[in-house]
Amino acid sequence: MNNINWETIKEFNEIRFEYYEGIGKITINRPHKRNAFTPLTVQEMIEAMTHCRYDDKIGVVVLTGEGTEAFCSGGDQSVRGHGGYVGNDGVPRLNVLDLQKLIRSIPKPVIAMVAGWAIGGGHVLHVVCDLTIAAENAKFGQTGPKVGSFDGGFGASYLARIVGQKKAREIWYLCDVYDANEALQMGLVNKVVPTEKLEETTVEWCKKILEKSPIALRMLKSAFNAELDGQAGIQELAGNATLLYYLSDEAKEGKNAFMEKRKPDFSKFPKFP
Ligand code: S0N
């Protein structure tokens, strides 16, 4: 029984943004287009994801699509113009790349809750999430070489880290569709559940995560990222180390000494082996 009462955090045009017991849920709300995203959809997701980052009540984020037909079918081909996806301002852009980076850098776990199609840029969105829970009806794949595009960033390299080089090349070169169990076998999703249990299971997973230490989760996410993200990944991990250091008496002694116009005394702090 699904008796989860989501409360609206903020009204948007192309997404829904809701809250329930520590969980922020972002739902692409364009089911008539199989939840394809426009520049506005992405801009709204970036705003919601940024809210999740700064809202202390939110410990985990769920990204999903409205209905059971699709999680997301990628960029809305009807607004793809000369040089990107064209928004109401007439400017072509590919702002989904900013969203991908935000999903990876927000220091809270992001779970993709996938029913139906996760295809093209919509597939990459679930790939960059920390975890994916799939309904039995979920279908996964890339379409780029069929529709005149490709994602050579996380959509290629991070996908290859997840499923291996051979499989990632197969996914992109053949543009085949994989069902939920095939996705599970290749490590592309964490769990497959009956479609009617998808939200219930996702909330159960969120609750288990919410019981855990937020700083441990934060450090782990940045550690997983650092392994792949080079200098930017090290910066993220190091930023978290700095956060922890700021919390220590040793770091506070440096700041206090400066403010009190005296020499800092670090002699009492241990020099760990
Ligand atoms: C999703 C599919 C497989 C669903 O098939 P189904 O269930 O048979 O439904 P349809 O009748 O086909 O669709 C229902 C209605 O929805 C519209 N629609 C579906 N997907 C899109 C879409 N992506 N854009 C616009 N409209 C869409 C249909 O047209 C239909 O509308 P009506 O009823 O009016 O006819 C199937 O629909 C499908 O294959 N969709 C296209 C999937 C696709 O190719 N997506 C785009 C892939 N490219 C990107 O996502 C690029 C963006 C990107 O992320 C990126 C990132 C970094 C670097 C590069 C890129 C890049 O690739 O450019």
Automatic annotation (TrEMBL):
Q: Which GO terms describe its biological process?
A: menaquinone biosynthetic process
SUPFAM superfamilies given in the database record:
ClpP/crotonase (SSF52096)
Q: Which gene encodes it?
A: menB
CDD domains per the record? crotonase-like
Q: Mention one GO molecular function.
A: 1,4-dihydroxy-2-naphthoyl-CoA synthase activity
Protein's name in the database:
1,4-dihydroxy-2-naphthoyl-CoA synthase
| Pathway it works in | Quinol/quinone metabolism; menaquinone biosynthesis; Quinol/quinone metabolism; 1,4-dihydroxy-2-naphthoate biosynthesis; 1,4-dihydroxy-2-naphthoate from chorismate: step 6/7
Q: Which reaction does it catalyse?
A: 2-succinylbenzoyl-CoA + H(+) = 1,4-dihydroxy-2-naphthoyl-CoA + H2O
Q: What Enzyme Commission number(s) appear in the record?
A: 4.1.3.36
Lineage, top ranks: Bacteria, Pseudomonadati, Bacteroidota, Cytophagia, Cytophagales
